[in-house]
Amino acid sequence: MVRVATLWRPVGPAELDLIRGSGMTEFPPRLPDQPIFYPVLSEEYATKIARDWNAPRGGGYVTKFYVREDFLAAYTIQSAGGQAHLEYWIPAEDLPAFNAAIVGTIEVTAEFVEPAP
């Protein structure tokens, strides 16, 4: 039996469109100025980012997905400002392997959209 970890990622509408374009099976390549891919370890942390950061910039979405633990074992959990803000730092060049380690599909668990003015 494959052991998996549950991870979340807050995304904006453009990234979500690319995820949907993959059939909800992978995250898009990083942009040149984005050397790291940051999946997070808690839904609460992903929600905070999607709601407070992404939503005012066009929309925020929380994605949930499962990744093989044997793949994640090569990476150290990082703290981005405290125990409530834990994430993996996956180098951009490792993203194809990360995507291959996703088990099942990526699902959207929450949506935050700022009302039109």
Please give a structural write-up:
- With 117 residues, the protein is an alpha+beta fold.
- The strands form three sheets. It has a three-stranded antiparallel beta sheet with strand order 1-3-7. A two-stranded antiparallel ribbon has the order 2-6.
- The chain has one domain (4-83, 92-112).
- It is globular, with a radius of gyration of 14 Å.
- β4 and β5 form a beta hairpin.
- The termini are far apart.
- The protein contains four helices and seven strands; from the N terminus they run βαβαβαβββαβ.
The shape, in one word, is globular
Q: Got a strand count?
A: 7
* H/E element sequence: EHEHEHEEEHE
Average pLDDT level: 95
Strand order of the largest sheet: 1-3-7
How many separate domains make up the residues? Answer: 1
Low-confidence stretches: none
How much helical structure, as a percent, in the residues? 25-40%
Strand count, sense and closure of the main sheet? 3 strands, antiparallel
Write a concise synopsis of the structure shown.
With 117 residues, the protein is α+β, with helices and mostly antiparallel strands. It is 26% helix and 32% strand.
Task: List descriptors.
alpha+beta, about 25% helix, about 120 residues, about 30% strand, three-stranded antiparallel beta sheet, two-stranded antiparallel sheet, 7 strands
